[in-house]
Amino acid sequence: MSHPDIALSPTAVPAEGADALVIAIPDPAGDDAAPARPAELAAALDAIGFTAAKGAFARVHAPGFSGLPLAVVGLGRAPDARTVRDAVGAAIRQLTGFDVVAVSVPAEIEGGWRAAAEGAALGGYAFDDYKSDSEEKKAKRRRARRVVVHAPDDADDADLAAIRAGAEAVALVKDLVSTPAEWQSPARLADIALETTADLPVTATVWDEARLAEDGFGGILGVGQGSDRPPRLVRLDYAPEGAARHVALVGKGITFDTGGLSLKPAASMVGMQEDMTGAAEVLAVVRAAAQLALPVRVTGWLCIADNMPSGRATRPGDVLVIADGTTVEVTNTDAEGRLVLADGLVAASREHPDVVVDVATLTGAMVVALGTRHTGVMGHGDAVDAFLRAADRTGELAWALPLPEHIADELDSRIADVRNANVGNRAGGALYAGLFLQRFVGRTADEDDAPRIPWVHLDIAGSSMSTGAPYGFTDKGPTGATVRALLEFVAAGGELL
């Protein structure tokens, strides 16, 4: 994982040990109380016409100001913590070639130092890629290895620990998603889950293909049976003593998705190692919860398979049996994520957690509906509102969508209990997937009349990957979308009350 270490300093413009300085500057036109700029800095900014518009970034020559290479980033008018997080993240992302960077944010902005530290930690991430560049080229594009943020003397160490854990969780997801599928089989991803939690109070259990068959996980087996690399199910359990709440997380982990026998077009297959993002996020959040010693039990279920075509692969028209005995007619083998998640939801529900959340790069329909920055949120109970509040607190974009009963009958199969895809009908594809998953969310107790467990479904098909120009602290590539919101949601125990 490559993200900068974050440290705090009570000095507003620290020079000792820093190689460069970033100053976040509000637009003085938006607030009569904006702090006055030192004369040397003001002159340098006037010379380049810097207006401090939100997100504006510039390298500035002002040797009389701090004696350090200087960059400024605009906060716009009436900036808040969210603005600071994005702006500082953008600055650290763009300011390359320096090992230690100091950051200064106006003390008047409530929560400003926390937001600056988080933005720096997120914006400073870089994937140790496979480019064969010279060391000189690598050094020029290298981002800061350490960022020192100006903070008050009474800055809370717990806040800094949470910022570091969140950044590390996002970095872990980005690393895993960026790894080519040739080096990340289902068995290898399961091993990574064990390795990255080995030094934490997390109990890990792995189902191989034999145990999956023995325990009836027909969805995961059915999706993975066409591959030479057999599937896995991983359970991670962080159960601190005295935990009053239990949150279960279920992640889709398709290590490569060809579509199976319902083969994707060539262009649509590029980048399909990303289809394990949901499982990576579940791993990262469980790990971060344990690192922070949150007083909440968190159980993670990673549903991992390769979806490949072969003589063994599941065929359209085959019937799979999910872990709860539900029979599913597979009408489209490229609607495989909901099949592995069905097994995971059944397994998670058997432990009667207080809330279940599944996260998956599930449907192209979600990209059509909400674009590439919003996560689609579905579910039942108060859990959806609780997650949306968590997302709002962390500044992540999420939008609630319905689960309309009037299309539920389109799940009906002539030969099985349900079918996995409504072939030939493109309307409401993301909703159809949500309705399918809802069937596998269990009840709060073993009685048939017990209410269903509160449930949230996160479709990150669009938000998990940035394919356009970088923005804020977000690079082109995997985004780690919903990791911080999930960690916030878990820390609040689901915040259902």
From TrEMBL:
It is an enzyme of class 3 (hydrolase). Its main location: cytoplasm. Mn(2+) 1 binds at D257, D334, E336. It comes from the Bacteria. Mn(2+) 2 binds at K252, D257, D275, E336. The active site is at K264, R338. It catalyses: Release of an N-terminal amino acid, preferentially leucine, but not glutamic or aspartic acids; Release of an N-terminal amino acid, Xaa-|-Yaa-, in which Xaa is preferably Leu, but may be other amino acids including Pro although not Arg or Lys, and Yaa may be Pro. Amino acid amides and methyl esters are also readily hydrolyzed, but rates on arylamides are exceedingly low. Belongs to the peptidase M17 family. This is Probable cytosol aminopeptidase. The gene is pepA.
